[in-house]
Specification:
The chain has about 100 residues and is mainly beta. The chain is about 5% helix and about 45% strand. It has a single domain, classed as RNA polymerase II/Efflux pump adaptor protein, barrel-sandwich hybrid domain (OB fold (Dihydrolipoamide Acetyltransferase, E2P)).
Length: about 100
Amino acid sequence: MTILAATRVGGRVVACLRPEEIIIQGVNAAVPMANSLRGRIRHIIPQGGLYRIELDCGLPLVALAGASQLRQGCLQPGGEVLATFPPEAVHLIPA
């Protein structure tokens, strides 16, 4: 699996993302971003006015979604989604 980042760091790294940087789309999204990972929703956990969406994309990801996304019915546990994020959102930490 390749994840694009806006910066370069030599050697092994850990890639970090803030949950609010991850956009959850349907698997048939018209124009995916540079980083698009197909995955399944494992858990949806209410957190105030937002929802914590735990994903399994071959690696664990956590995203935040608003109530309007849940009301549309496109986010449900077990559902297949596309998690997308721009390279600028990826923070690299030398391992």
